[in-house]
C-alpha cells in the first residue's frame, strides 16, 4: 500500500469519526449542523480514477447515514458532490485543473475557498432537499442550506489550512 492510499484511509476514518462523534451532536439554533466529512471528497487525489471517488463517496455517505439513522440522504448528497467535483475543480482552479497540477497544500486560498464553498452549498442543498422532501418547505431547505453551509465552510477551510498547508 502506498502512502497516498494510507493517508486517504486515515483521512476517511478520522473525518467519519469526527462527524459521527462530535458534529452529528451539534444542532445550533435548530438548523445549523456542520458536515465536515465532505472534506474527504474535496481532498481526494485528482489523478485517482473517478469511479473510485464515486464508490468511496457512496461508502462514506452510507456510513454517516448508518450512524445518523438518516436513510441514505448523506450517501446521495456525497455521490452528487463527488460527481460534480470535476466541474467545481475546473471552475475554481482553471488551468491548474486542466493540467492536473493542483496541490491543495500550495494553492491560492481564494480558489480553495471558492471550491469548498461551491461544493458545500451543492452538497447541503441536495442533503436538505432529500431530508425535508417537501416543496412547500423550500424556505426551510434554503435556510438550513445557507446556515449549515456557512458553518461547514468555515470549519472545512480551517481544518484544511491547519492540516494540509506546508509548515514553514
TrEMBL record:
* Localization per record: Cell membrane
Instruction: Please name the GO terms of the biological process aspect recorded for this protein, alphabetically.
Output: regulation of cell shape
- InterPro entries assigned to the protein according to its UniProt record, in alphabetical order: Cell_shape_determining_MreD
The main location class comes to membrane
Q: What is its membrane topology?
A: Multi-pass membrane protein
Going by the UniProt record, its keywords in alphabetical order are: Cell membrane, Cell shape, Membrane, Transmembrane, Transmembrane helix
- GO cellular-component term (any): plasma membrane
Quick check: keyword Transmembrane in the entry?
yes
Transmembrane residue ranges: 5-22, 28-44, 51-68, 74-97, 109-133, 145-163
Protein's UniProt keywords contain Lipid metabolism: no
Q: Report the family membership.
A: Belongs to the MreD family.
- The name this protein carries in UniProt is Rod shape-determining protein MreD
Amino acid at each position: 500500500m502506498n502512502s497516498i492510499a494510507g493517508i486517504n484511509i486515515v483521512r476517511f476514518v478520522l473525518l467519519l469519526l469526527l462527524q459521527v462523534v462530535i458534529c452529528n451532536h451539534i444542532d445550533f439554533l435548530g438548523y445549523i449542523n456542520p458536515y465536515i466529512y465532505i472534506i474527504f471528497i474535496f481532498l481526494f487525489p485528482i489523478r485517482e480514477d473517478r469511479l473510485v471517488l464515486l464508490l468511496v463517496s457512496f461508502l462514506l455517505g452510507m456510513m454517516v447515514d448508518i450512524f445518523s439513522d438518516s436513510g441514505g440522504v448523506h450517501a446521495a448528497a456525497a455521490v452528487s458532490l463527488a460527481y460534480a467535483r470535476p466541474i467545481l475543480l475546473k471552475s475554481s482552479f482553471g488551468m491548474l485543473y486542466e493540467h492536473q497540477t493542483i496541490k491543495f497544500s500550495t494553492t491560492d486560498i481564494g480558489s480553495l475557498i471558492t471550491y469548498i464553498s461551491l461544493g458545500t452549498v451543492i452538497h447541503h442543498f441536495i442533503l436538505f432537499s432529500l431530508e425535508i422532501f417537501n416543496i412547500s418547505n423550500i424556505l426551510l431547505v434554503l435556510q438550513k442550506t445557507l446556515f449549515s453551509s456557512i458553518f461547514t465552510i468555515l470549519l472545512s477551510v480551517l481544518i484544511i489550512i491547519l492540516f494540509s498547508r506546508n509548515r514553514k
